[in-house]
Specification:
alpha+beta; two-stranded antiparallel ribbon; 99 residues
Amino acid sequence: MFQIRKSADAEYDTLTQSATKKGKKDAQGLEKKRLKAEEEEEEARERQERCEKRLEESRKVVLVEDASLPTLTKVSSNLDFVVDVSRGSERVCACSPRL
């Protein structure tokens, strides 16, 4: 049984049924928020671990130039090309002369 008082010099009164219900509901809400925060923290930790694992795996990859192919030469152009790679294929959308 809970009792409350409105000021320091007032007498204690018993809690009403609605106040008890409201207090329980507030406590349950705080518990839900705490659990949700813990779950989000755990998901963030797992996401960070996966990211670090991918980074470590990517560091193991070594790119080597194929010696059997001819060497590349740089070609300059006086046009700027805008490439659309959103659909996975490269195609020229627009071009404009470089000034």
